[in-house]
């Protein structure tokens, strides 16, 4: 297993965020509500992804908000639809973050292959789920 430093050196074009032990434990506890092992794993990865990426994105937007050409403010970030994510993760992998009118789908994966990314069919077939951008996490 590689350390975060080794991975970030090997793949400098990727964004690398640390996962706190506390966040991992909370995500694991929340995932135990799901009906089967696959759904629990899916919920765990999605929870970790969302609750690590969104705070990073908000902090980054906060830094950018002081610049002249800043398009987004941290307050414009919303999770869609936040209240139904646990039931969604029972069957489907991924979450959508809305930045104003832009939809960004976060699709977690346990794959070590950083060169290939597959978007689950539901995120493309269902018009109300489509995103403007898909981010493999």
Molecular structure report:
With 137 residues, this protein is an alpha+beta fold. The chain has 5 helices and 4 strands. The chain has helices at 4-10, 21-31, 37-64, 85-88, 122-125; strands at 77-80, 95-99, 102-107, 133-136. The protein has a 4-stranded mixed β-sheet, covered by helices on one side. Strand 2 (95-99) and strand 3 form a beta hairpin. The protein is globular, with a radius of gyration of 16 Å. It starts with a helix and ends with a strand. The model has no long low-confidence stretch (mean pLDDT 83).
**For the largest beta sheet, what order do the strands appear in spatially?**
1-2-3-4
Pick out the low-confidence regions. Answer: none
Q: What radius of gyration results from the CA coordinates?
A: 16 Å
Estimated share of beta-strand residues: 5-15%
SSE string? HHHEHEEHE
Anisotropy-based shape: globular
Q: Can you tag this structure with a few keywords?
A:
137 residues; alpha+beta; 5 helices
Task: Give the topology.
Blueprint: H1 4-10, H2 21-31, H3 37-64, E1 77-80, H4 85-88, E2 95-99, E3 102-107, H5 122-125, E4 133-136
Parallel strand pairs: 3-4
Antiparallel strand pairs: 1-2, 2-3
Helix pairs in contact: 2-3
